[in-house]
Amino acid sequence: MISQLNDRTFLKLNGGDTQTFLQGQFSNDIDALEEGVVQLNAYCQHQGKIIALLWVMKQGDDFYLSFPDDLKAIVVQKLTMFKMMSDVDIVDMSDEIIQLGVVDENFDGAYKLNNQQSVALVKTLDGVELDDANEWEAACIANDIPEVTLATSEKFVPQLLNLDIDEVGVNFTKGCYPGQEVVARLHYLGKSKRRMRQFECEGEVNMGDELVVAGSKSAKASGIVVRRVKLGAKSSFLATVEVAYEDDKITLNDADGIELTRVVHG
Fold this sequence. Notes:
Blueprint: E1 2-4, E2 8-14, H1 18-23, E3 39-44, E4 50-59, E5 62-68, H2 72-83, E6 89-92, E7 98-103, E8 111-112, E9 117-122, H3 133-142, H4 180-189, E10 194-202, E11 210-213, E12 223-231, E13 234-242, E14 250-252, E15 261-263
Antiparallel strand pairs: 1-7, 2-5, 2-6, 3-4, 4-5, 7-9, 8-9, 10-13, 10-15, 11-12, 11-14, 12-13
């Protein structure tokens, strides 16, 4: 199953200081990144909240960044500001490279995201048979791959999106990056009261919708929709939720909203 991943920016970074520069900007260990894989990275602000969640790939001395289009201006501005006099060139190749999401198939030269999914980079769709993009979204949800868009930018610390589990998106020994002290403090001294879980419900769900639990004492909503897809009459989605209430009655946006069902695998 192959889908074209529209609405994603694609940047190429190269130059002698690129690896060191990215190591000091992102949450994961860029120095450990190997060719042929996709590494999840949070680009955080100083309070540890995620501005953008990026797919980072490497080919030779080039580094590729893929993330939602609506965050392009923010990410490019931030990268440009922090690179200062470093030997780093940032090139927007969104109009030249076609990004494909591949599920349960082999695709020559693709970058592995997980055991089921990979990302392929091509210049033409000749000979490629495309499937419904909703199938890619459904696979991301089933594999707990979060997304951050403009609507949810700066709403999550990495732990809320489970990026600390098995260090899939955060490395705790790599050294400094923006927000690192806050993220590390929560990891070593605390326990996240909210985590990302999979849900489903009848009807429509939107990114940034709120989860409401009647028994919660929190002044904020009990959770936020992180990623969603509509398959037929049902919506399947990832959302943050207060762990203490994850199996309680949860509704969407208000107490009288659509009731949600948590999906538990295995």
